[in-house]
Amino acid sequence: MTMERRNIGVEIFTDILCVWSYFTQARLDQLQRDFGDRVELHHRYISTFGDSSGKIGELWNDRNGHEGINRHLRKLSEHWDYVEIHPEIWLRNAPASSEPAHLYIKAAQRLEAGGELANAADPNGRKVADVYAWYLRCAFFARAENVADVSVLRRIAADVGLPVDALQDFVDQGHAHAALQGDRDAEQAYRVSGSPTLVFNEGRQKLYGNVGYRIIEANIRELLRNVHHGEATWC
Fold first, then answer.
1. Which of 23, 74, 105, 212 has the most CB atoms at less than 10 Å from its CB?
2. pLDDT at residue 204 in the model
3. At what angle do helices 65-77 and 19-35 cross, to 10 degrees?
């Protein structure tokens, strides 16, 4: 008789400014709809764009830098009809770093973990902090807003219904920095290659990059069937 595990955790490592993470959100939402509380998604944040100009200069220096990545993202968006890319992405209000946004998201996660936030009325079942992260991604990719600007971060937090002053306190008092350091430690421990990376089975399985939904689903189903926690799977 095949026995299933009750639930599994998936750790998702992303940078808020990573376009592939923006595209991947729809797959994560589908995962939550298909598996419900049998799958627990834990979002972690890594600094792929900790220095965005440096990153773009390194990868796009011979392809017109910000103009090159702008053309690339607009071209990519032609194949993704469920997300929007602003025509002036990376040309207008380009964030200097993803770090400010990550800190505010980690503050929201800490508040939520402490039971200080109401449940989000979200059709995809996302946690409040995850809704906030999605709003920030949409602000950047769809509206070309500078999500490194604290005034933007605070305004969007208020739009989501987050207690802005409490959020700010968690940032100012170092709690958000400590939480973000925890993500960096996990990134190193799991040897995460970049954004997005999905980590299963306490690091024994990883999926990196633009991975199709059926591949993610197959990993989840195999792990749910494997009641012997920590053993290798056939997937």
1. 105
2. 86
3. 30
